[in-house]
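Example 4.3 (complexes with small molecules)
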Amino acid sequence: MTDRQAPTLLWLRRDLRLGDNPALHAALATGRPLVPVFVLDEVIEDLWGIAPKWRLSKSLADLSRRLAAQGSRLILRRGTAVETLLALVEETGAKGVVWGRQYDARAIERDSAVKAALKDRGIEAQSVNASLMFEPWTVETGSGAFYKVYTPFWKAVRGRDPGTPLDAPTDLSPPEHWPASEDLVDWGLERAMDRGGAIVEAHANIGEEAALARLDTFLDDRLATYGGERDRPDIAGTSNLSENFATGEVSPRLAYWRALNRFEGLSGKAADSAQVFLQEIVWREFSYHLLYHTPHIVERSWREEWDSFPWRDDNEDAEAWRRGMTGYEMVDAGMRELYVTGRMHNRMRMLTASLLTKHLMTHWRIGEAWFRDCLIDWDIASNSMGWQWAAGSGPDATPYFRVFNPLTQADKFDKNANYRNRFLAEGRTTPHQDALAFYEAAPRSWRLDRAAPYPQPIIGHKEGRERALAAYQNRRG
Ligand code: FAD
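Answer. The structure with flavin-adenine dinucleotide bound is encoded below.
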């Protein structure tokens, strides 16, 4: 092989797209043939839950098809990242490896080890920003610290130019000889979804093309009303792009950039709405800012003092919560939405997390783990931040004494019960198909009886609230 034929490996991770992919551009800029690679590595095996792995597999299949349509391939390998990439370098004679950065402690540790091993062998290793607009170390307070509160973070970045999105390349510069690839089906990433997979799939929007179409539909139909409708689980008022951001099928920069262009042409309420959407995308950036600067947010209470709170470990009430059987219709509808669609409306995430951590005084990590297993948009930064926000243990969190009332939340955000009717079958003469699908998707071991009456509330709202507040007061001494 001549030196010019030696390829560059593009190590894809959470950037499974061709458009606006700086890692792909950096790899092509080496001027060498391109070998796109995905490694099912130790971090994914250890950290990712059931639904995210299922969703990942769908995304990989889509990207493989897209690459093949352009004369390229996605090479799949399973193993520890260092060993697998070194083996591929050896097999292909690659001179360099390029990847998009990730920001959690496990990924950083893995990537540092890969970089060191490649450099030791004289192989070029290049990491670039491929999934954020503002990398965590580029946003600082006046005193050079990181931000712990969202609003000043937003103010610091809102005028910044995140750069113009990059077009998808047309020439993917394939090598003369391809290394062998493993078979996606053999990885069994979909297996653990059991019979729920087909049900969730009907609600998923898989792949780059679908993601871009969804973005455009949202910008055309919903951006101008987003501000008023984003809090309503009973209507389709949000973008539903989180599953696409989570796999990297579309970049947040592209969504932000397109929304910003629309925003500039809007006025009055519509402009306010568009601004709220931009702010929400920046919430995602903020979660990565926190994740990078305070990596313990994934595993321990962000505010250390919360580790001494009398959290309950896993318990029967938490199990009823997971099964959508708390007796609070709004909460149960949310938990069933999660099971049937692999998603949950943001308001419902806040409400269900509040009930678990406050009324049921169950450790936020129990809920975080359940979401990690069930969400097709699972994102290590947003999920950790969201749970710690709801529990009160995070930075910029809701105060512990603000306990969501599951009854008034229903009155306020689901006035006509459309949302509850969509996901709950009990007491409905002609239940919605999504309400019935829950019984299909739920594990048989739950022994759900479709004819059983709806349960009584697991704990009274007043009682649960008072118990949580008393524990909170005692903790403070
Ligand atoms: P839109 O309302 O259309 O917002 C556009 C984008 O902005 C979203 O796709 C998302 O990337 C970002 N965004 C919006 N709200 C938030 C937020 N509160 N925090 C961070 N980013 C936000 N989001 C995830 O992507 N993955 C998770 O695992 C996740 N877990 C959560 C757990 C809890 C307990 C809570 C309270 C929130 C969690 N969120 C998570 C945040 C939020 O609920 C989702 O991002 C949102 O519901 C996705 O729907 P959408 O794409 O229609 O959002």
